[in-house]
Amino acid sequence: CVARGGSGPVPAGAALVVADRDVAGSLDALRGERFDAVVDVARASVPWVRAALAALAAGAAHWTFVSTVSV
Q1: Which runs of consecutive H residues, i.e. helices, occur in the chain?
Q2: Which residues pair with 63 in a beta bridge?
Q3: CB atoms inside a 10 Å sphere around CB 51
Q4: Are 69 and 44 in contact (CB under 8 A)?
């Protein structure tokens, strides 16, 4: 689970990686990790999406993007 850390506890069996997507390189700690799925819930920010894809896409078997613009 990647979040700014202010949303409450992480479910049992999950780990929290604190990251602020407004800070360049905040997802770099996850480079090289493998994921069954990535669910990217973010505002429609092109730099955020590009940075997430650059850091995580190579290790993700499935990617779902949900824009909060339409929520």
Answers
A1: 46-56
A2: 38
A3: 19
A4: yes
